[in-house]
Amino acid sequence: MVTHRNAGTRPRKFGNIKHHTEELMGRLESKVALITGGARGNAEAIALRYAAEGADIVTCDIVPAEELDNTTGKAVRKTGRRALCFETDVSDESQVNDMVETAMAEFGKIDICVHVVGIAGPTQDIQHLTHAEWRNVLAVNVDSAFLVCRAVLPHMIERQTGRIILFSSATGKQPLPHRTPYAASKMGIIGLTRTLAAEVGRHKITVNAICPGYVDTDIVRAAISEIVSKTGRTENEAMQHFTDSNPQGRLVETSEAPEHREIWILCGPGNNGGDGFAAPP
């Protein structure tokens, strides 16, 4: 199946991809990378960078099929690489398994898995949360990481090589009042990363987490709107909650996010020992 980008999302901003990849061009030649959530934001930018560096791309999202192939998929093919796009709910076990098996049939391997999918969840004090709201955030943010890792690992173990990157958040290392499900899920990703790294390191598979600061993505914008509607703060006050946590004093664009280079380093051919990290420290 082929997914597509939601027409209601904001325009993509990738900066000068050629400039960012010149010194690393071709370093992922012959690799196959699975990147979840490829319709927008960080995942879309990573997919295009990896393609520019020589990787064939498998990506997925929950939006209908054709547009993702016409946006992210088309952009990948412009680099000369192949793209395989799926409409997949990564919190659904059978859909994740079907995606990975189809990708294996097409490419014969998955060298790199970057799991980016996540939702912000509700802005609410915990005593006012429903169990359904709690479970939804944990299912999308944590269960999905488990399902994706479990699906790709047998193939990586068979080949005795692999790179897995899971997206946590700066919130994975610090509290975020009124956002308990999100904070718990991102802290859970760090625990999953470190434990899984200890389990599969003997198979020459590395597992690491990325903990981005606040990037100008749909999920952050949605969180700002939720804070405004639930707490009565102004938009500027809600925005300040995020910008004050970034050293730049503003939201970072996807094209300039430093974790994109960290992802390259952690997935690159020279990283055989970096394992169980939650970067930046």
Q: How are the SSEs ordered, and which strands pair?
A:
Elements: H1 17-21, E1 32-36, H2 41-52, E2 56-61, H3 65-78, E3 83-87, H4 93-107, E4 112-115, H5 131-159, E5 162-167, H6 180-200, E6 205-210, H7 218-231, H8 235-243, H9 259-267, E7 278-279
Parallel strand pairs: 1-2, 1-4, 2-3, 4-5, 5-6, 6-7
Helix pairs in contact: 2-3, 4-5, 5-6, 7-8
Pick out its properties:
281 residues, alpha/beta, seven-stranded parallel beta sheet, 7 strands, 46% helix, disordered N terminus
Provide a descriptive summary of the structure in words.
The protein is of the alpha/beta class. The protein has 9 helices and 7 strands; from the N terminus they run H-E-H-E-H-E-H-E-H-E-H-E-H-H-H-E. It has helices at residues 17-21, 41-52, 65-78, 93-107, 131-159, 180-200, 218-231, 235-243, 259-267, and strands spanning 32-36, 56-61, 83-87, 112-115, 162-167, 205-210, 278-279. Strand 1 (32-36), helix 2 (41-52) and strand 2 form a beta-alpha-beta unit. Helix 2 packs parallel to helix 3, helix 4 runs parallel beside helix 5 (131-159) and helix 7 packs across helix 8 (235-243).
